[in-house]
Write a structure and sequence with these properties.
The structure holds two protein chains of two kinds. By secondary structure, chain A is mostly helical. Chain A folds into two domains: 6-293, ABC transporter involved in vitamin B12 uptake, BtuC (Orthogonal Bundle), CATH 1.10.3470; 313-391, no CATH class. Chain A is built from 18 helices and six strands. In chain A, a hairpin with a 2-residue loop joins strand 4 and strand 5 (192-197). Chain A starts with 5 loop residues before the first helix and ends in a 19-residue tail after the last helix. The model of chain A is unreliable at 386-403 (pLDDT under 50). Chain B has a six-stranded mixed β-sheet, sandwiched between helices. Chain B has helices spanning 42-49, 72-78, 95-108, 123-135, 151-163, 181-197, 209-215, 233-236, 240-245, and strands at residues 4-13, 16-26, 31-35, 57-62, 65-66, 80-83, 169-173, 201-205, 218-223, 226-231. The two termini of chain B are 30 Å apart. Chain B is α/β, with parallel strands linked by helices. Chain B has nine helices and ten strands. Classes of the chains: A mainly alpha, B alpha/beta. The complex binds adenosine-5'-diphosphate and magnesium ion (MG).
């Protein structure tokens, strides 16, 4: 189906279902309940972030997962894409089509230049070069490029902007031919509340398309060449393959994904600043991919979702909420537990992320996807009891790197 | 004129003259062996031929064109494939994928953007890859990860990867080093078979005289970076200069 083998097709279907049903799946608790207040994640602003960062991580994985080249400046493309989109809003209209096109094209051009320079080196030198480029872009956006980026204030749309394609009745928020990004339908069922927002669905569809394209790339001859480059670049050249254009193509595709992600961010909220290009943003993308599982199809999406969930959910938890959880315990125990957990919640959510990241990297070098596979293997072994697993030893299925 | 003409090639590594005025002519469709003690410069010579090293002076002509200054992938596309002394394979890929990549290189050239179609649908590539795996008796291992292969199988895989390109010139750097006797004999048979099946020129570096005398039509003896003699196998046995170069090494 859709040119995919049955396993990949199943995976795609799961991703489509999860993203389309996210407004329901992520709001499992009634709105006004304590659990709902703490753990519901089905509100549009957060779900947008899930899919936009998911898309970003999927694109990053095409470079890092397939070729092994670790870009530490990927947020630069995100930033450039955001700026390009806001400029289209300023110059043309709030329609997101020209904005998204501009995001992709500008990010691609940017990636060609940066890629051409950075790919002269490999390994750690490549990473440092990309980092340097991104930090340079960040610094430039704050200083000499202020006329384009609006410096510290951030780029936004003003009433006196040309917006030459705007006509009288057009919406004054980003829209797709009148379909406004920030409008939504709310569905109340008992104590539950589900919000279906246009913007989220647009971003979700972009993510699904991006995910589908990434599966096709993983299974294509091009994907095979990239994996071969990762495995042995020397053999690649002595086999008559020019690794440079392959690498550049991977870099540019990856940068285009980031450009789309940046464009989507602007479409959700037409305001952008240089901090989107800061190195911590690039680092976050790397962490997402590694946490989920580098080189696997679903891993980066998973990693992006988990990090954005932790960031938003754990950072909301404060000591009052903790005390509420442990209210049934004796006071001394309650206080002890709250004191232990307190550093890990609220502003300390990075600490939780750090611990999680270390545990994953040490015990599951293949990321959470590997964890899932191990669990799956454990269960199937239990159910099949002594079924021999000799077939898995030292074999690899030709066309299916682990999903 | 041979298919490969090396003239006056010099290469220094600091104070060491690794290659000193090397002249070599390899005739088309022959097996040419290069022998010589360790450190004689044999691998260095191959590195020059495949574009890994640029000589300080001299010329290297292949098929009427100079290879000097060309990149390794360009030289490969001209028709020179190389088996390395320590196998260079794609360790993280399956055996099948390892041989499919040279098939793609041969069909699509040094670069082709082929990002949407599935590898599974590349019928002709799969057929070629399977045929060569059958030739080297590795079809049963097609789905194994290359890193899980035995040493001998890794060498055979690398040889299959080179052969499937149907190169005009195949360079082999000690293809049987570290192999058991049986494996060595298999390799000799394989190379002989290849030689019979297609037009191919081979240039083989070897320590094992059994291999050399089973395969080679011409033999060049290299010592301290300089060719001493070039002869037929019959005439090389007992050649005084060869005895001299190999003094203390294996009996010739
Ligand atoms: N890249 C290099 N840098 C410095 N010295 C080298 C290099 N490659 C080979 N040599 C030296 O050149 C000489 C010839 O090496 P080599 O061609 O590998 O010999 P062999 O005939 O055993 O294959 C040796 O002394 C080796 O140490
Ligand atoms: Mg050698």
């Amino acid at each position: 189906m859709l040119g995919l083998n049955s396993r990949d097709f199943k995976l795609l279907m799961i991703v489509i279902f999860m993203t389309l049903a996210a407004p329901i799946l992520l709001n499992p608790f009634p709105v006004d309940s304590a659990l709902g207040e703490s753990f519901n994640a089905g509100y549009p602003a957060l779900m947008q972030r899930f899919v936009i960062f998911g898309l970003l991580a999927v694109g990053f994985n095409i470079l890092f997962g397939l070729t092994g080249y670790l870009s530490f400046g990927h947020a630069a493309f995100l930033g450039v894409g955001s700026y390009a989109a806001v400029w289209m809003f300023k110059l043309l209209s709030y329609n997101i089509i020209p904005a998204m096109l501009a995001s992709v094209i500008v990010a691609a051009l940017f990636a060609v230049v940066i890629g051409y320079v950075c790919l002269r080196r490999s390994g750690i030198y490549f990473s440092i070069l990309t980092l340097a480029f991104a930090q340079m872009s960040y610094a430039l956006a704050y200083s000499v490029l202020s006329p384009i980026t609006n410096g510290e204030t951030g780029l936004q749309v003003y009433a006196d902007d040309p917006q030459v394609l705007m006509s009288a009745g057009d919406p004054v928020v980003p829209h797709l031919f009148g379909w406004e990004m920030n409008s939504s339908v709310t569905w109340n069922v008992g104590g539950w509340q589900f919000v279906f927002q246009n913007g989220y669905y647009l971003a979700a569809i972009c993510m699904i398309i991006g995910f589908y394209i990434s599966i096709r790339i993983f299974r294509s001859p091009f994907g095979l060449m990239l994996r071969a480059i990762k495995s042995n670049q020397t053999r690649m050249s002595y086999t008559g393959m020019n690794t440079k254009p392959y690498m550049l193509a991977a870099f540019v595709i990856s940068g285009m994904y980031a450009g789309v992600a940046g464009g989507l961010m602007s479409a959700m909220d037409p305001l952008t600043g240089a901090e989107r290009m800061f190195w911590t943003a690039s680092g976050e993308i790397v962490v997402m991919a590694i946490l989920g599982g580098v080189g696997t199809l679903i891993g980066p999406v998973l990693g992006a979702g988990i990090i954005k969930y932790l960031e938003n959910i754990i950072s909301k938890i404060n000591s009052d909420i903790l005390h509420n959880w442990f209210a049934f315990m004796p006071d001394w125990m309650d206080n002890l537990l709250v004191n232990i957990l307190y550093p890990f919640v609220g502003k300390g959510w990075h600490l939780t992320l750090g611990v999680l990241f270390m545990v994953v990297v040490i015990f599951l070098p293949g990321g959470l996807v590997q964890g899932g596979q191990k669990l799956g293997a454990l269960f199937s072994r239990k159910s099949k009891s002594s079924d021999s697993d000799a077939t898995t030893a030292g074999t690899a299925n030709t066309n299916t790197p682990a999903e | 004129m041979g298919i490969l003409e090396v003239k006056g090639v010099n290469k220094r590594f600091g104070g060491l003259q690794a290659l000193g005025d090397v002249n070599l002519s390899v005739a088309e469709n022959t097996v040419h062996a290069i022998i010589g003690p360790n450190g004689a410069g044999k691998s260095t010579l191959l590195n020059v031929l495949v574009g890994k090293l640029i000589p300080d002076s001299g010329s290297v002509m292949f098929d009427g064109q100079s290879v000097l200054g060309r990149k390794p992938h360009e030289i490969n596309q001209m028709g020179i494939s190389r088996v390395f002394q320590t196998p260079e394979i794609f360790a993280d890929l399956s055996v099948m994928e390892n041989v499919m990549i040279p098939c793609f290189a041969r069909r699509d050239g040094a670069f082709r953007m082929h990002a949407i179609g599935s590898v599974r649908n590349e019928g002709d590539i799969i057929a070629q890859a399977e045929a060569i795996l059958a030739d080297v008796n590795m079809l049963a291992k097609r789905d194994m990860l290359a890193s899980a292969l035995s040493r001998g199988d890794k060498r055979r895989l690398e040889m299959a990867m080179c052969l499937v390109q149907e190169p005009k010139l195949l360079l082999l750097d000690e293809p049987t080093a570290g192999m058991a006797r049986a494996d060595t004999n298999n390799t000799i048979d394989l190379l002989k078979e290849i030689k019979e099946k297609r037009d191919i020129t081979m240039c083989i570096i070897e320590h094992d005289m059994h291999v050399v005398f089973s395969l080679a039509e011409r033999i060049t003896v290299l010592a301290q970076g300089t060719p001493l003699v070039e002869e037929t196998p019959e005439n090389i046995k007992g050649h005084p200069k060869v005895r001299e170069a190999y003094l203390g090494e294996a009996q010739v």
